[in-house]
Structure to design on (408 residues):
């Protein structure tokens, strides 16, 4: 069985894992990223980059390259109720300035290409993590399977960055604090329709018992999501396809309803996002660290996943690089890993709390508070009160509530 020694092994080539790999490799740290898929092109994942995420790329010295990635700038938000336009506002008025929908495959490829300019970087596709290698209670590597059989990857430090369904989190056995969620999301992508307002507008539609979201994508399509009660998908799909899809389409704006009916098969085969939100009480053990959704799966509310993951990577690089470049003393590594969790914890708790509060509105569009908010929104915008009322959300969801500065 071949053995592949490496200073750091990162499990998962998502935004957190690839950003951290790039930051470590450019400092000369030997880093191997293990990705179970064969490439970056797979089903829809978070593509919303906000000020905090864009700032992370600028701090990494990749701002110019990031700006050239395929993307759309979402400058306006339109609110509909039962198919009727009730409000059009700028994204800035809702604390969402500098909001971009960025191709995540292109974003990850950018990080991979930049990391590959360093001889200490290696990215291995098609590796499924099975369990940890341990010696005297310390994680010293990863055992994985590939098309050619089982392989072992030795490391001074293993970093789990394999997302919300992380194998590394399951293997860690760390206790988890879960916030129960009352909704799931049906995600699909259809061709852009010329009836849509424009390519810089996001749309939110509330109807009886459901909420719909839509926004243009970097590849020229239209991303659509339906918020449904948690666990309701199986019962929906047991009905006649035309019946349950018509029920979802309901009284959407006509241009959106027509686009969905023309692509009904895509809706029938849409992906279900099982919404989860929580955080591990501990992120590290001897020789091991979790970051990103592997440590704290985020709700989709506010599009925070990618942005928070990138900020995790910056903090992890700050803490780990000095120790790794100084010889990777085990005790010092473990202390640095604990500091990552301690530094990131306040922002994760605050953002998840805000996500939970907003998610309660999304999951109950018929609630009196939701209907009242719809009626008051135009007045709040005209009087300029909305930005003031949303100042806390603006800081949390767009800019972050703590200062994160890359120091290495």
């Amino acid at each position: 069985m071949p053995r592949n020694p490496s200073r750091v092994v990162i499990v998962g080539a998502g935004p957190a894992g690839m950003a951290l790999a790039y930051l470590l490799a450019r400092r000369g740290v030997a880093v191997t990223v293990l990705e179970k898929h064969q490439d970056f092109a797979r089903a829809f994942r978070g593509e919303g980059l906000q000020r905090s995420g864009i700032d992370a790329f600028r701090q990494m010295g990749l701002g110019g390259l990031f700006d050239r990635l395929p993307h759309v700038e979402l400058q306006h938000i339109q609110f509909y109720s039962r198919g009727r336009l009730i409000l059009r506002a700028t994204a800035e008025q809702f604390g969402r300035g500098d909001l971009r929908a960025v191709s995540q495959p292109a974003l990850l490829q950018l990080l991979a290409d930049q990391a590959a300019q360093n001889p200490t970087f290696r990215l291995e596709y098609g590796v499924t993590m099975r369990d940890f290698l341990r010696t005297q209670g310390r994680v010293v590597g990863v055992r994985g399977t590939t098309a050619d059989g089982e392989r072992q990857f030795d490391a001074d430090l293993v970093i789990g960055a394999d997302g919300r369904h992380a194998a590394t989190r399951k293997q860690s056995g760390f206790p988890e604090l879960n916030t129960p969620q009352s909704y799931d999301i049906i995600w699909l992508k259809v061709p852009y329709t010329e009836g849509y307002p424009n390519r810089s507008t996001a749309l939110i539609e509330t109807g009886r018992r459901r909420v719909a979201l839509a926004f243009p994508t970097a590849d020229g399509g239209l991303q659509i999501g339906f918020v449904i009660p948690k666990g309701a998908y199986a019962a929906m799909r047991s009905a006649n396809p035309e019946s349950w899809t018509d029920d979802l389409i309901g009284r959407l704006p006509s241009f959106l309803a027509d686009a969905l009916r023309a692509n009904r098969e895509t809706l029938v085969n849409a992906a279900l996002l099982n919404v989860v939100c929580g955080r591990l009480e501990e992120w590290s053990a001897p020789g091991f660290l979790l970051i990103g959704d592997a440590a704290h799966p985020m709700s989709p509310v506010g599009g925070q996943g990618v942005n928070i993951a990138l900020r995790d990577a910056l903090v992890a690089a700050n803490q780990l690089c000095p120790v790794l470049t100084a010889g990777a003393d085990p005790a010092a590594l473990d202390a640095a890993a604990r500091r990552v969790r301690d530094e990131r914890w306040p922002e994760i708790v605050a953002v998840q709390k805000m996500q939970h509060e907003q998610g309660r509105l999304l999951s109950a569009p018929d609630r009196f508070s939701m209907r009242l908010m719809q009626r008051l929104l135009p007045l709040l915008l005209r009087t300029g009160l909305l930005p003031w009322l949303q100042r806390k959300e603006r800081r949390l969801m767009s800019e972050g509530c703590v200062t994160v500065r890359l120091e290495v």
